[in-house]
Structures
1.
Amino acid sequence: MIYLDNGATSFPKPENVYKAHDYAFRNYGANPGRGGHSLARECARVIYNTREKIREFIKANSTREIIFTSNTTEALNQGILGVVSEGDHIIISKLEHNSVWRPVEWLRKNFKIELDFCEHDKEGYIILEDLERKIKKNTKLVVINHCSNVFGTMQNLSAIGQITRNKGVLLLVDGAQSLGFEEIDVQRMGIDMLAFAGHKGLLGPMGTGGLYVREDIILKPLKTGGTGSKSESPEVPAKGPERYESGTMNTAGIYALGAGVDFINEQGLDKIKSHKLNLLKRLIDGLEGIVTFYGPQSLENRGPVISFNLGDMASTDVAFILDTVYNIAVRAGLHCSPLAHKFFGTLEQGTIRVTPGIFNTIEEIDILIKAIKEIRES
Ligand SMILES: Cc1ncc(COP(=O)(O)O)c(C=O)c1O
């Protein structure tokens, strides 16, 4: 199979990630933080090591700012539900994934939260003046999708972070599609919270993700329970990461996620980025005039995601043929982002989404191009 659905989850993983997962599953079998015996301590150290790798990767100040979750959705829910209280105002972009839109709509419905959407230009870039204008006295939080998982638009985080910092509101970035592709420096960019997937661009296993939270921000925990520390107290610890990580952790997954970060560091982000953009360029050049592409015209501020349609064919029909006849996996439909589809006018038809990974080749893209051309002619 030609797998071009890395936006959903990256596959295959690098060999060292498979090996790390297997090794950890066999050797780090005790429960980290639960019990003082040497294996439990070793497991806690394994988790700490990945925390440190992520800290370094996003240039956070302290490992205590890195919280592990089971996916980006959980991280976003923790970030959003953890800071907002009744009467607060939230601003989100119009390209948000349902893992942002649904929690904020839930808050709006149940807790009298005010919600606004910032405006975008026709390629999906946030109009910064509009964002600045919309921030008001009770604005608590701005949530921005760094790279649209449907259209690939990559927002200018430094400019957005400057606005939120000047206005004294919190900035939560959804980095699900961008981490492992674009460099992120949370301190320089003024990011207060960053939600990320372990299983996409960072090349770790499914069931891994995380949230960076600046150390002075104390969130209401999404869940409470056993943390292996302060067991005499009815409350979870006052500070992170233990505050947010109740319950047994995914030690093998987190260890393998660390191996994914090692792989990216060895390759270098520049190389990964230029490889994925080269594949997108090949696709755009090969299908120019044949399909309708959406989103940014230039590759410059685009993530590793592209969407298109073939005439008025249902995107799901095209994807079905690609899968069943050509053995090519792409995603079609609404990609869990109805807001983004509404913005680009593809709510009815959906889009065919191609998200190349590090192991895809130009030859595979050429096979996809040929397949699309044949589908058009059939
Ligand atoms: C932009 C964006 N945010 C959030 C998510 C949710 O990620 P997860 O599946 O890790 O919960 C996705 C998933 O594709 C996404 O693309």
2.
Amino acid sequence: MSYRLPGDKSKALLDQGLPSLRDGLSYQRRAASSAEKGYAAPAQMIVGRAEGDFVWDVDDNRYIDLQNGWATNPLGNCHPEIIEAVHQAHLQYGFQWEHPLRIPAAEKIASLMPGGALPRFSFEVSGTEAAESAIHLALCHTGRRYMISFTSCFHGEGLGTKMVSAYDSQKNIYMEAWSGGVLKAPYPYSDNIPAGMTQDQYVEYCLWYLETHLTEYVVPAENIAGIIVEPGLAEGGNWIPTTEFIQGIRRICDKYDWVMIVDEVLTGLGRTGTMWSIDQYDVVPDILVVGKNLSGGIEPCAGVAARNDILGDNPRASGGSTFAGTPAGCAAALKTIEIFERDNILAHAAMLGSLASSRMSTWEQRYDIVAQVRTHGLLMGVAFRDPEGVSEDYYFARSVRDAMLRRGVWAICDNEPQVRMYPALNMAPDVLSKALDLMEESIDQVQREGVSIGDYPPMPSGNVGF
Ligand SMILES: Cc1ncc(COP(=O)(O)O)c(C=O)c1O
């Protein structure tokens, strides 16, 4: 089976969006860039409807959904119980700020926090706002001026989060000079290891950079408020750092009295097989940022959980914009967590993670174009490379993602040489197995036939996944 993509209705919508959407031109630009190099136009589709583990495009082609609303639908698409809870909240409250649901929702979220140590919660609308709020809290709590963030990491699309993110320098073009209070440190991502260093040596170097280089040569430790870190790279490539690195950050934060912020917007609420990715490091952060899955895939809900002394007594730190913690958002969060507990979703996610990891375990050996298989719970991905070193690695990833889509599996390949996958945490095991079979067929095809898509370089202005 191979879909002809974009289908007629998707194509008509893409054309209709050309003059009005912010990234309306992105598909045509990519198609033109691919054609210039003699390759096909990339596959593209627009979702017509969604249910459970699947989406259908407007041309009625069905796909197994590994894109998952950019990892926001932990219980699959359009979960009926969450829709019902959200609907009831809409009927009862419409939109109000002073509604009662935010109290049990905050209590419930706090009860899930690592070590029970982050009892206070501040609602925000999006992961972006939550990450910005966390940084503001840390600055106001410490009365210090600098924040450390990491290369390869992504924290959002607000002005502040663009400043601390560093997974693509193009994203910060024209704003570089605004990030005066941000110290960017290397993240020991396996894709960036300097020549000749082992992974362990690179971790040691990254920790030395934080503990010694920054504090002795750049900014005194007593003027640094804290560190914001992803305990599992998400947008940067679905890659998990070592225990030494994350525990090292905790040790350095304790030594200098820095606030440790973990951004679990994508890794949180079960994505890596435990409630929080940080749970796997035996580390308790001072602030934890949550979003995406908390919405149940239905209604935005995000926020910041923090130590009592950081959030409870911090009159300078404001947060929570108009639509933060709406009745419907809180209802979605409460229902999502209820289903997590009732249906033992974490155990199911961990089981699916093991299934994926054993199914994909031979791919690095079997396919020259596979650089690294990444599975950590359901934070899944495959990094690609050009075995001949002639073409951009990115083309291989794009070609595999393209071949998958034409076979009916929807995954992400944005601006990186990886295909990333975020199955729902309650996906049926046979559906996940089928998706991985089709992915392997796609890898095999690209390995044999070579690159088919050349839509590079990507522009930072829009998601290539549409
Ligand atoms: C780790 C991380 N932090 C923050 C964000 C921003 O969240 P949102 O898109 O909900 O604003 C994202 C989004 O992908 C993310 O992956």
